[in-house]
Each structure stands twice: as C-alpha cells, then as structure tokens.
Write the structure tokens for this entry.
Amino acid sequence: MTERKLRTEMPKRDPAQRARDFDEVALGYTEEQAREEAARCLMCKKKPCVAGCPVGVDIPGFIELIKAGNIAGAILMIKQYNALPAICGRVCPQESQCEKVCALAKKGAVAIGALERFAADWEADQEADVGGGVREPRQAGFTKPAPKTETAAGGNPAQLSSAKASESKQQSVALVGSGPASLTAAGELAKMGYGVTVFESLHATGGVLRYGIPAFRLPRKVLDREVDYIRNMGVEIQTNVVIGMTLTLQDLFADGYAAIFIGAGAGLPYFLDIPGENYSGVYTANEFLTRVNLMRAHLFPEYDTPISVGERVAVIGGGNVAMDSARSALRLGAKSVTIVYRRSRVEQPARAEEVENAKEEGIKFRFLSAPKSILADGQGRVNALDCQEMELGEPDKSGRARPRPKPGAEFTLPVDTVIVAIGAAPNPLLTRAAADFKIDRHGRFEVNRATMQTTMAGVFAGGDIANDEGTVIAAMGDGKRAAQAIDKYLQEKRRLTAKPQ
Ligand code: FAD
Ligand code: SF4
C-alpha cells in the first residue's frame, strides 16, 4: 500500500522575530506547496467537507483546480460561495468545521483553509480580480446602482435622508454595520441587482475584522482588498452613521429602503465584577484591541492614542480574543504575558493554531485559575492579581466541564496590566429600538434561523447580534441566508402590490 503524504504545514515567521512586530505571522503556501497539498484530497463523492462549511463552498471542486494548476478557476469557484476568501482562509476555525469532518481528519485533514488563502492571495498578486467584482442584475426592473466610493456621512440626518430620497425609484436595502455579516449580505443583494447601502458607525469598515483581529493575523491590505471587492459590486458604504442615533430604523424605511438587515455585532464587553476592576491599568479586550488596531496606539506618538502595558500583563479568558490581546501586549513590549483561564486546555475555545502560535511566542498559561480581585498601589495603579485555583466538575449546559474553586488553593500574580477578555453582548441601542423586537436572555435578536427575519416586518438580522457561534463564517452564513430571504420577501411584496393587467 502506498503511504499517504503528510499534511503540508504552512511556513511561519520565527517566533522571536515576529513577537516584536505586527507583521503577518503565517507566510502562506507557494504554488508548489499548494498543489502538493491539493493532491492529498481524496475527492470524496459525498463531500463531507462541504457540509461542514457554513457557506457551502465546493471544497473538492476548488481543490481539484488548484491541483491542476488552474488557480484562476479555483478562486472563481470559491467566490461563487464566499466573497471574503482571503479573510476566511486566515481566521476561520477550519479545525472545528470543514477540516474536522474531512475524510482524512484522523491522519491530518487536507489544509482547506490554507488552500483557500493561497487561491485568494494568488488572485491579489495578479493585480486584477479574476473573480469579477460586478455581475449583471438577475431580476428585471432593477437599476444597478453606479459603484460609489466610501462616504464619511458625518452624522447629518437631513443630508442623508435627501440623498436617499432622490434614488427612491430603485428598490434598495439598508444594512447596519460593516462586519462580515453585513458585507456578505450586501454582496449577495448587489449581485441580485438591489441598491445596497451599508451604514457603519465607526470611521472605518470591517467590524471586528478591523478593530478586533490584529494585523499579525489579518493584514489590513487583505481586509481592504476584500471590502473593496464588495464595494465594486455596487455597494455604497457610509461610515460615521450610528443607526439608532444618527438615523433610526424608521428613518431608513421613510427614506425608501424596502428592507433592513442588522449586522451590528456584539460590541458590549462583559466585566468580571470583582473588586479592583476600576483601577488604572485594567482594560477590556475590546478597548485594548480597538486602541491598537483602530487607533494605532502601537505607533504612539506618531498616532495620538497612547497605551502602556508595563512589563507584566495578565489576560483573563481563553478564547481568540484573549489570545489576540496577549500576543498584542507582547508586541507592545511586555516582558511577561500570562493567560489566566478558569477551565483546562481541553475546553479552551481559541483556535488551536493560535494557541500554538501564542505558546511559541512565549505566552504563559495558567489553566484552572480564576481571578478573585485586582490589587493596586497607593496611586490606584494595578500591581497584582489575586487568583483562585479551580477544578473541573460536572458538565454545564454548554457541555463543558463546570469549573469550581479548589478549597485553600490561591495565588497572587504580580502584574502591571490586566486585560479582561471574557466575552461580549450586543449593544442594546438596536435590539431595544422597537417594541416589536423579541430578544433572548443574552440580548440577541430572536430570529427565524432559516430566514434571519426578526419579529419586526422587513427587518432581518445576523452575525453576532443574532447567533451564539461568534465566528466570521457563521456571520457570513447568516448574511447569505438573510440576503436570499430578503429577496424572497421583496419579490412577494412586489407581487402583492403589482397592479392587475
Ligand atoms: P462585527 O464584526 O462585530 O461588525 C459589526 C459592525 O457593526 C461594527 O463595525 C460596528 O461598528 C457596527 N455597528 C454596531 N452598531 C452599529 C450601529 N448602531 N449603527 C451602525 N453600525 C453599527 N472569529 C473567527 O471566525 N475566527 C477568529 O480568529 C476570530 N477572532 C476574533 C478575535 C477578536 C479579537 C474578536 C473580538 C472576535 C474574533 N472572532 C473570530 C469573532 C468574529 O470576528 C465575529 O464573530 C464576527 O466579526 C461577527 O461579525 P458581525 O458582522 O456579526 O459583526
Ligand atoms: Fe477532500 Fe477532505 Fe473534502 Fe474528502 S473531505 S473531498 S479528502 S477535503
């Protein structure tokens, strides 16, 4: 029997070098490596990997094209299903999705994410979209909007309203937020021929992809390119517009938008609720990462947002957000960074690859440890974290072993900075914007999962504001389903209002 080849690992930069800058860690495959890896695929008839992909990419289809050296064909095929392949190839948790169910999973799944990234980066190197940004509208009676550039609307409701009213002949959809959920829905709707406007509250697009995930995992030029791809489909993006404040949902309907998709994410961080959380030197991961990624604090004084982490940093939490915070703190000059997580490595939700990268860079882990209180010096400046050792008990509702305090086992970590990365909830600005909305106990919209329709007519929602998965690809899957449902909803509405012949 012939020995099957081992998975081709993606080359990475040296840990000692990469831990001191924000340049990308993973280097990507060469064409030779990609074709070698593609050749491992068994081209399974039942395609279990496709069922494991929330946006249903034809995985063996594009892999076969890479194997044959037809990379342009591969990226064209991927983009039929996924408009953000360079992003997904970098940040999706493939090990718990398509690669988990790959027929070769036990021996080393085909590196589907790395191959997707390779195809997308290859296209970027060609200096032109082979994936074809703008497609013809499929429905009669729609006028395709002229491609527009990003507008910083600057919060003038009157101007925004009148600008929109002049386009009212065309059926348009408004999308709230410019994260992966809205960008995906926007691209799909634009392909169908709708007029599409995305309203983003920040001055920059991309949502968590820009303000949360650091550049060493997702370079900004990769993000910019994929946002441009969506924009070139005819999607208008207006930044600095807070829906619920600058404009209300009612304003959007009054301005002539026929439907609304809300992809406003979950940007309201949870706090520990322990003594000392208000001391100087305690950040939520949301604030910490936003300061670095969006406000460029790591380039202070060139940019005027300062950040100081001192020499010793503790990060509370075990997910991707905790890993990103810890690795960013290291890059800001901390000498020692410790992850404090109340469960064990087995239950840790962060991507395996990122935990590995963090370890290689020298991040320390205190598993089965929970913070009890934060201590400070006479000036109110953090100087230590009191912790409690934990042990695992029965599984909780999520199926993970429930941590409980180990009697008499406590310790103190001397630290200068504490970063709290224990999760986030949606901002209630939109979920509580109308009495018609039903929200769940976590503050998320209750939606029909098949259509992403909220309990308010004409309003759909998806991504972190409506699901508990908290991944880019789940947000994209929601956006895709919502776009299809919005199209159906609007077709039905037009049918009902059409005059009899
Ligand atoms: P978001 O990406 O949160 O975008 C929402 C957008 O809406 C934001 O730009 C926000 O400014 C805007 N907005 C909010 N309110 C309003 C309003 N009222 N009006 C107008 N605009 C508004 N997932 C992975 O799959 N892999 C990873 O490796 C990974 N790492 C992560 C690392 C970090 C640090 C974080 C925080 C998350 C990470 N995630 C990861 C999770 C993933 O990024 C999210 O699940 C995903 O971005 C959710 O997409 P979304 O479109 O729902 O919302
Ligand atoms: Fe290839 Fe794995 Fe998909 Fe089978 S399951 S087609 S081996 S990627």
